[in-house]
Amino acid sequence: MKALLKEIGHIPNRRLSQNFLIDDQVVHQILTLAHVSKEDLVVEIGAGTGALTLPLLSLVRRVIAIEKDPKLVPLLYRCQTTDQRLEVMEADALHVSFEAFSRPFKIIGNLPYHITAPLLEICLTMPSPPTSCTLMVQYEVGQRLTATPSTPDYSSLTLFREFYADVIDSFKVPPKAFYPEPKVASQVLHLRPRLKLPFDDPPFLFQLIRKSFQQRRKMLRSSLRPMYTSLFIEEGLLAVNASITARPENLSLDTWISLANWIRTST
To answer: Which of 56, 78, 130, 261 is the most exposed place for a label (fewest CB within 10 A)?
Structure first.
């Protein structure tokens, strides 16, 4: 990897969170977790030096590799097959029109820490979602995505992920699997987007959730006070079988949905 980067005169860019995967065993684990097959179209986010791109091309029908850094794009073109099954897009994944891709497709990607949340939102909320998303994120983010109620990592991000997708499987990746080594571990998650969402007004639901988690130490009857009276929220909590002293992390997704539905029908 060092020799390859030196050949093109490239120094890993910390601003772009460039830590390149160099562990073949982890590559194998990711591809196994993704459950790819010869019929699949795979959209790869943050293709980098092609560590996943090349083996993907031996397993799937077609790969669309998205890479923002123009210095790395030539490395991806080296992965091209004789039958031209690789399409390289030099682009910021935040500004790619995923809706333009033919369906069905799967997403595999290494999401940079500083844009994990918006990229995750793009992957999960598009009108016609991918069949699956196999995503590498910073380990602490992975813990938040898979947390359970009443734990420190449980957050609005947890509820967002649970609302839009199921976590099928995951595994931890140590820093030594990358060059240069990051200071923290990573986690790979295999997500299956929901075909039918559990509530018909996501913006309203997440307005409540995000507002409450801005002051997660406060009880809901206090954190939601700018929107509703304390007495009204207490009444709603009792209606959904929750404690009137509940804090945002105490409510499961189902309870949040019940509360949102009660508020909507009671105002």
So the answer is: 78
